[in-house]
Amino acid sequence: MISTTIRGRYEGGVREAVTTVTVHGGAVKLNGNVTEATFVNGSSLEGLSFSLEKPGSFLIDFDVPKQDVRFQFMNNMRVMEKPLNFTYTHWRGDNRTVVDGTLAIDSSNKLSANYGFDSGNCKLGYSYVHKGLTTFEPSYDFAKNSWDVALSQRVDEDNVVKASYQSSSKVLGLEWCKNPISSGGFKISASVNLAEESKFPTLSVDSRLHVEL
C-alpha cells in the first residue's frame, strides 16, 4: 500500500510545504520526503530525504543534500513491573548522540529523561493526566537551570488546547490542535516572548492531508 501526506506550514510570514510518500512493506515503511525547495529553481536535491522505518524498533533517516544520516533505535524493558521505553538517536554529521527514556508508573503518571552524551546535558520531565482530559507536564533542564511547564485540556474527541511556558527563554505559548495532526488534522499556535519589549505574538499554522492509494 502507498500513502501520501501533504503538510503545509506557515510561521512568521514564511510558508513551507512538505510531501511525504510512504510505501508500506509489511512491518517496514519506506518514506520519501520532498519540500517546495526541491522544485523552486528547477529539480534539485534540496529538501530531499529518505527514511526506512520499523515502528517501535528502528528508524534510519538520510538527508540527501547534506549526505547525513540519523540512526534511531527503540527498545523497551520492565522495571518493577513498569514499562520503560528507550530511544537512542545518533546524528552522524554532528557526531551527536541522545538517549530518551520514559517510565510509565501507571496510566496517569509518567516520568521521562533526556540525556545528551556530547553535551552532558540532562532534562527530566513528569506527566500527569487527570481523568483523561487534563495533562500537566513540568520539566527541568539542568544545563539551563530552568523549569518548563505545559498544561493541555481535551475539549472533546477532536480538539485539544495547550498552554506552555519556557522559563529560560520567557516564551509563553498557546496552541489549538484539531484531530490528530498526523492523520489529517491541523494545529494553530501562537507564542509571545515576554522578554521582548514589543511582545508581538508569532503565529504558526500546521495542517496535513493524508491520502491512501
TrEMBL record:
BP-aspect Gene Ontology terms: regulation of monoatomic ion transmembrane transport
GO molecular function: voltage-gated monoatomic cation channel activity
Highest taxon, organism lineage: Eukaryota
Protein name from the UniProt record: Outer envelope pore protein 24, chloroplastic
Species this chain originates from: Solanum commersonii
